[in-house]
């Protein structure tokens, strides 16, 4: 089962449950509960937004700096410039000629 089918199945089940509560099919609801049933989709969107925000903040806070990869990439750039210069291509002077 793909993720798309899982998400669509879950969404259909939640929508069916919400609609059955909204139409008061299994049992009657008092006004206070019916108010919250009407706004359940808004609550769900807000909860999804807060959860997404929390995941993004957590991932930003725990992001690794990868200093080894930074130094390795800098060395590869220096090596590439040296190889290109040996072939007759000057990267610094050509970069100044291009408009930004």
Automatic annotation (TrEMBL):
Q: Could you confirm whether the keyword Transmembrane helix appears in this record? A: yes
Main location per the UniProt record: endoplasmic reticulum
Task: Kindly list the residue ranges recorded as spanning the membrane.
Answer: 38-61
Q: Record's Pfam families? A: DPM3 (PF08285)
What keywords were assigned to this record? Coiled coil, Endoplasmic reticulum, Glycosyltransferase, Membrane, Transferase, Transmembrane, Transmembrane helix
What pathway does this protein act in? Protein modification; protein glycosylation
Q: How does it sit in the membrane?
A: Multi-pass membrane protein
Annotated GO molecular function terms are:
glycosyltransferase activity
List, in alphabetical order, the GO biological process terms annotated in this UniProt record.
GPI anchor biosynthetic process
Is this entry keyworded Endoplasmic reticulum? yes
The entry's cellular-component GO terms read: dolichol-phosphate-mannose synthase complex; endoplasmic reticulum membrane
Superkingdom in the source lineage: Eukaryota
Cellular location(s): Endoplasmic reticulum membrane
Coiled-coil intervals, chain numbering: 63-90
- Please give the family membership noted in the entry: Belongs to the DPM3 family.
Subunit (UniProt): Component of the dolichol-phosphate mannose (DPM) synthase complex.
Tell me, what does this protein do in biology? Stabilizer subunit of the dolichol-phosphate mannose (DPM) synthase complex; tethers catalytic subunit to the ER.
- Please state what the protein is called: Dolichol-phosphate mannosyltransferase subunit 3
Which species? Answer: Dinothrombium tinctorium
Identify the taxonomic lineage of the organism of origin: Eukaryota, Metazoa, Ecdysozoa, Arthropoda, Chelicerata
């Amino acid at each position: 089962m793909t993720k798309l089918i899982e998400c669509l199945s879950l969404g259909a089940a939640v929508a069916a449950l919400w609609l059955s509560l909204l139409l008061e099919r299994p049992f009657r609801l008092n006004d206070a509960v019916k108010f919250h049933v009407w706004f359940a989709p808004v609550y769900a969107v807000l909860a999804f937004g807060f959860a997404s925000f929390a995941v993004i903040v957590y991932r930003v806070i725990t992001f690794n700096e990868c200093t080894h990869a930074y130094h390795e990439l800098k060395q590869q750039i220096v090596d590439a410039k040296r190889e290109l210069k040996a072939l007759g291509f000057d990267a610094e002077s050509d970069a100044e000629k291009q408009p930004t």
